[in-house]
Design a protein that fits this description.
single chain, about 65% helix, about 120 residues
């Protein structure tokens, strides 16, 4: 592989890392809004549904963090406002750079906070 191909590959991988980071932020934003809905809701059934959805979103975040650490594939689904097409899914492959780090910096920061959110969601 020549230097241009290697740089193109590393650039593409960095772009994928950014997309995974954006997906993580999206999931965390969804979790935040669900907690607000639970706080405002007087309907216990709705609160239970939201708690389950919170755990699903947290699971997505944990998967994305695992991909940042170990490499793998992340699928990002977007809802569309087009007739006969509800969702659009893109899959991204990521491989971690050989930096010798065993944890992604995002994992170090977010995993303890996710554990707290899981406890609050129960």
């Amino acid at each position: 592989m020549n230097i241009n191909e290697e740089l193109d590959e590393r650039l593409e991988n960095a772009e994928v890392r950014n997309k995974i980071g954006e997906a993580i932020l999206g999931h965390l934003s969804t979790v935040e809004s669900m907690f607000y809905k639970i706080a405002l809701s007087k309907n216990n059934a709705l609160s239970e549904v939201l708690r389950k959805d919170i755990n699903i979103e947290i699971g997505h975040v944990k998967h994305n963090l695992a991909v940042l650490e170990n490499g793998g594939v992340v699928s990002i689904t977007r809802k569309l406002n087009i007739a006969n097409v509800e969702n659009y899914t893109l899959s991204y492959s990521y491989y971690p750079e050989n930096t010798g780090d065993t944890l992604a910096i995002e994992s170090i920061d977010l995993l303890p906070k996710l554990t707290e959110l899981e406890k609050k969601g129960k």
